[in-house]
């Protein structure tokens, strides 16, 4: 082995692989119980340094398990343009993370050779972490991993949300037009985009410039407080679940609200008020409100997506710009939202497998690509053509819709789904339309739906196709799902192995809540039977 990797061998003794299981780089990087991730973090640190040298650019390392419970943790690598790690490197990462300790140093040497890395290139790595108790310890493991590779510069941003880290990586890699490479630059960009967007006009119609934000007791509280201070004259943010003694993602946060379809703790519902929840690393956003019958109503990623798509396509039309707007969803998208986009807005809709990296890619096919998962994870991409056309239209004279488009673009963090940026985007649109949450909700009516989890011996026995809408293995499961869904009006259901938890997810929708619940339960029971369920039968 070359002397360059002696430190890998030396330091790896501090981080032995004692997980006792294979941990894969999934939908959102590595994710598992924090107690078994130290060696994974150490190895990811090494890989981030190599990836940076290979790309001759800054790479991000985000330590978080996002919406998962406090005891979990995880890590994802951010590629130079803010995108998720390239597929080929996901495979390398899984292989390296799971090797026996004795094989690590030679495997690292092998990666260098096979991927053509020049170790003489200076590496640059940005590291950030969420608020989990295990995150400082795991950050140290990442830093130790990076230190094994010579000639690397590291910036430890310490506490930062996932979208902030993506933003910083993009800015650092030369996209100065995008924003300043600092947390303050991020706060300034979003808040000034919002303030320019709403202009000097005061709030009108049914819109009230006040909102309660549930921060999931996570890092989002830190980031949104900074932004809230800058816009407090125009929008009052009341923060709840903003940290200790509250427990991260426990009975609160975007995932809790979306799946349980109810208010999080510490939120006092009142008709006419708007509420929003972020998730543990502030990359997802869900809105909700109490309707006039005191019923909980949710405005999820689909509703945010179509609010954005409608607004942006209207502005482009009024600005006289020939730009193609498109929407990208996943199988979780409510059937009513897809119909509304296609039939009412006449906007094309693409369907992709779960995981924002798939949606991000598909959204690049449009001038304005609005991509959201129903769970509230998403953003808007503007093509170079769209950016140039809007700028030209603004320069060439009195084109108010183009000006509005331009300031809206500044609010949007296109590098990745960003709950705070999306929240400001929603608020700017509601502000300009004079809409209440109810007005927004009136765009279309969601089909009732239900999500369930099933524990099975090995979730990977489930294989899917057609953007996860069909199950191709185990044999017979799809036929059973078709037969069950056929019993209910508007019945639709699909199953998929989770990429972030050791469970199978079941989605069901139908014409009534009772039918959606029944369909979900029946499909969950079929999964349990055909996939060797463990624990109590659903
Ligand atoms: C992560 C991904 C999301 C994806 C979610 C799915 O979310 O970033 O794009 O929707 O996982 O999780 P699962 O595969 O378990 O259904 P997050 O917010 O946890 O990073």
TrEMBL record:
Domain (Alpha-D-phosphohexomutase alpha/beta/alpha) ranges: 53-100, 104-170
GO biological process: carbohydrate metabolic process; cell wall organization; UDP-N-acetylglucosamine biosynthetic process
Keywords assigned: Carbohydrate metabolism, Cell wall biogenesis/degradation, Isomerase, Magnesium, Metal-binding, Phosphoprotein
Transmembrane feature ranges: none
Pathway(s) per entry: Nucleotide-sugar biosynthesis; UDP-N-acetyl-alpha-D-glucosamine biosynthesis; N-acetyl-alpha-D-glucosamine 1-phosphate from alpha-D-glucosamine 6-phosphate (route I): step 2/2
SUPFAM superfamilies: Phosphoglucomutase, C-terminal domain, Phosphoglucomutase, first 3 domains
Keyword Disulfide bond listed: no
Membership in a protein family: Belongs to the phosphohexose mutase family.
Function: Catalyzes the conversion of GlcNAc-6-P into GlcNAc-1-P during the synthesis of uridine diphosphate/UDP-GlcNAc, a sugar nucleotide critical to multiple glycosylation pathways including protein N- and O-glycosylation. Catalyzes the conversion of GlcNAc-6-P into GlcNAc-1-P during the synthesis of uridine diphosphate/UDP-GlcNAc, which is a biosynthetic precursor of chitin and also supplies the amino sugars for N-linked oligosaccharides of glycoproteins.
Protein name in the entry: Phosphoacetylglucosamine mutase
Organism this protein belongs to: Folsomia candida
């Amino acid at each position: 082995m070359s002397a360059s990797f002696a430190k890998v061998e030396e330091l790896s003794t501090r981080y032995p692989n004692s997980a006792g299981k294979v941990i894969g780089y999934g939908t959102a990087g590595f994710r598992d119980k924090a107690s078994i991730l130290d060696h994974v973090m150490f190895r990811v640190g090494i890989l981030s340094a190599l990836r940076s040298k290979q790309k001759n650019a800054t790479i991000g390392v985000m330590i978080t398990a996002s919406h998962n419970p406090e005891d979990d943790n995880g890590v994802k690598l951010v590629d130079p343009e803010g995108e998720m790690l390239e597929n080929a490197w996901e495979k390398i990462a899984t292989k390296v993370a799971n090797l026996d300790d004795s094989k690590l140093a030679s495997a690292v040497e092998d990666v260098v050779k096979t991927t053509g890395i020049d170790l003489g290139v200076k590496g640059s790595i940005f590291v950030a972490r969420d608020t989990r108790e295990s995150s400082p310890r795991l950050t140290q493991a990442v830093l130790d991993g990076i230190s094994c590779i010579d000639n690397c510069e590291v910036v430890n941003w310490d506490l930062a949300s996932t979208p902030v880290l993506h933003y910083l990586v993009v800015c650092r890699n030369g996209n100065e037009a995008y924003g300043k490479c600092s947390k303050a630059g991020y706060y300034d960009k979003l808040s000034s985009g919002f303030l320019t967007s709403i202009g000097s006009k005061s709030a009108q119609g049914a819109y009230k410039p006040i909102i309660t934000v549930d921060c999931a007791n996570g890092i989002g509280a830190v980031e949104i407080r900074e932004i809230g201070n800058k816009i407090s004259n125009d929008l009052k943010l009341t923060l709840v679940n903003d940290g200790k003694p509250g427990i991260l993602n426990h009975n609160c946060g975007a995932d809790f609200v979306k799946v349980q379809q109810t208010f999080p703790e510490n939120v006092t519902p009142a008709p006419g008020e708007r509420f929003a929840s972020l998730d543990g690393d502030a990359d997802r956003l869900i809105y909700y409100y109490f309707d006039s019958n005191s019923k909980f109503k949710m405005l999820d990623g689909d509703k945010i997506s179509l609010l954005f798509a409608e607004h942006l396509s209207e502005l482009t039309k009024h600005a006289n710009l020939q730009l193609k707007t498109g929407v990208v969803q996943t199988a979780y998208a409510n059937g009513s939202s897809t119909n509304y986009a296609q039939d009412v807005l006449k906007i094309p809709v693409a369907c992709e497998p779960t995981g924002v990296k798939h949606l991000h890619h598909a959204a690049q096919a449009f001038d304005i690509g609005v991509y959201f998962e129903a769970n509230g994870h998403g953003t808007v991409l503007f093509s170079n053509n769209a950016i140039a056309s809007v700028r030209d239209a603004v320069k060439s004279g009195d084109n108010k819709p183009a000006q509005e488009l331009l300031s809206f673009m500044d609010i949007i963090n296109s590098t990745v789904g960003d709950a705070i940026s999306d929240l400001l985007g929603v608020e700017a649109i509601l502000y300009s339309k004079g809409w209440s949450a109810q007005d927004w909700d009136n765009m279309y009516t969601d089909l009732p739906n239900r999500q369930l989890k099933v524990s099975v011996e090995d979730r990977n026995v489930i294989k899917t196709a057609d953007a996860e809408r069909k199950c191709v293995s185990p044999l017979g499961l799809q036929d059973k799902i078709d037969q069950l869904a056929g019993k209910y009006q508007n019945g639709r259901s699909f199953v998929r192995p989770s990429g972030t938890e050791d469970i199978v997810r079941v989605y069901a929708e139908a014409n009534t809540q009772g039918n959606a619940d029944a369909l979900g339960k029946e499909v969950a029971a079929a999964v349990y039977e055909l996939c060797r369920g463990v624990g109590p039968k659903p």
